[in-house]
Amino acid sequence: MTDASTATQHTASRESGIADDIVAALDAGDPRQLLADRVEQLYRQLPLALAAPFLIAVIASFELWDQRAKELVMLWWIPVFVVSASMTALYWAYRRSPDPSANATQWLRWLGIAALASGVNWGVAGAVFFPSHTDEQQVFLAFLLAGMASAGIPVYAASWPIFALYSAAILLPFTYVLASFGNRLFAEIAILIPVFYMMNVAVAYRLNQVFQSGYRLRHAYGKLTEEHTALNERLEQQLADLTDAHREVAASGRKLALFAERAPIAVFEMDGNATILEMNPAAENIFGYPAAELTGRSLIRMLMPSDRGVLDRKWWEVFVASLQPASHVRTQCVRRDGLEITCEFSLTPLVNEEGDLISVIAQCRDVTQELEAERLKKEFTSTLSHELRTPLTSIIGSLQLLNSGVMGDLDKDMAELTSVAERNAQRLLDMINDILDIEKIESGKFTLNPETVALDELVRESLVLNRAFGERFGVRFQALGEPVKVSVHVDRKRVLQVLTNLLSNGAKFSPEGGAVEVGMVRVDGRVRVEVHDRGPGIPDSFRGRIFSRFAQADSALTRQKGGTGLGLAICKRLIELMEGSIGFTDREGGGSTFYFELPIQAEARRSQAA
Questions:
Q1: Where are the domains of the chain?
Q2: Residue 270 phi/psi, 5° resolution?
Q3: How do residues 264-310 score in pLDDT, each as one tens digit?
Q4: CATH superfamily of the domain spanning 451-609
Q5: Degrees (nearest 5) of the Cα angle 459, 465, 467?
Q6: Residue 507: which residues within 8 A CB-CB, separation 6 or more?
Q7: pTM > 0.85
Q8: Cα(91)–Cα(206) distance, integer angstroms
Q9: Looking at the domain covering 263-366, what would its CATH class be?
Q10: How do residues 536-592 score in pLDDT, each as one tens digit?
């Protein structure tokens, strides 16, 4: 009963809505279009208004033809032919008009004149013929004129003013003749004729209103039909779009299911309580559980050790409440055989439009071997670097003694060879130091010794200390303008290391005879140190990884200059450890500008106090 009542209410609501649409369309009908429809109806009736009067005129002529009225009848046919010809020409002009609705008012006016002329023709004829004929002929004329006046109702009902003119033109002369004839009966009829005339006009007016309503209704239904047709077309298009979308969603679902099934990493689908709903074959392989054994059970209780603080029950509640994805979540997991492995999870909550949690998709990969390999690599690198640095230090010291002349003067060839050996040994030692530095920074074992330093003095010192290195490449180091006098709270040695690296890069890639310029500017409570060179610039393909480890641009010049590709990576990490930032821009006129920013000491203290 409830469903039936609801359906009835929906049906009634739709019907009421349709009725409202019809009423609105009726009220909003275009007056110009309605006028055009009325004119069209009038001209459609015009052939009847031509043929019927002509036929009646023939009959009337036959009845009135005698020796006394013969000349009058022949004379009367002249206006009959003129009026008929005029109305025929008007009809054909209307039909041949390319757009009669554009001038509907003018066509209506011309039709009114034609109807008035026709009525005057009949009214004058009745007034002329009535007094000069017998009683029987007078009765015939009265009946004829009354019929002609009444016949105008169906012909001109679409415009009651035209009917009123036409009928008045017929009845007015005839009424005058009756009233002045001197016969009491005719006088009484003359009194009744205006009453009948008013009744006919009222009927014509009412028919005119009916026609108007019909026209409005036709346009309303036409408009509604167009709107409903357009609506149906839109609905069909939307249904087609929905069908296509359904196919695409189904295809995407099949693809996602296939990806999850074939994915080399574990994929779980869980509800808000971490209960496993589905899992892929890779998850079975990683954790050793068949899907049937884990489905419907808690991932946290089955796979997570109870003494870990990540991915436990408390962590999960916070994650579900936030409805935010979590990535790179590493934790220990327990396999079915009891072996602990390290897994990295990426969890994505699926939320509907109302903000309710649908499920959680968890992607998991076993990183145990990866972490072990990383640990072994770091140990190997650290051990190898320490083992290499000790003999290298001894070699460099011995070569420096030879080159200084302490062991006696060397001949030219021998001195050149020992100088080359010293430079390359020093280069190798620098590379080892860079590797050790980056490993310490990334392992978290790197420590800074911050102190208050006058940065302008530190910049001047770096220019002096690196002068000899620039001379090796035929490049000079110089200050750009007066350095800004500011103090910063940094590790002095490490800032010098950053400046040395940026200056050495500028010297390597600047043209011989050029200059590497160092400037300082204030930027919103920070100080920026800029190193400008006139080198070839940074290739577009290399910009995104210029501060990465072992990153070098792939060019002949880079290979010729050498380097480990660690210098800028170390600079970035050192500056960030000192709460600064580092970057680069293209230099106007060619070359590059590398810069780093550090907080000015007063600004840094205020930030810490806040």
A1: 7-219, 263-366, 372-443, 451-609
A2: -130, 160
A3: 888 999 998 999 998 888 898 989 999 889 999 998 888 887 766 67
A4: Histidine kinase-like ATPase, C-terminal domain (3.30.565.10)
A5: 100
A6: 466, 469, 470, 472, 473, 475, 477, 516, 533
A7: no
A8: 26
A9: alpha beta
A10: 877 777 676 777 765 555 444 444 444 556 778 888 888 888 889 988 888 887 788
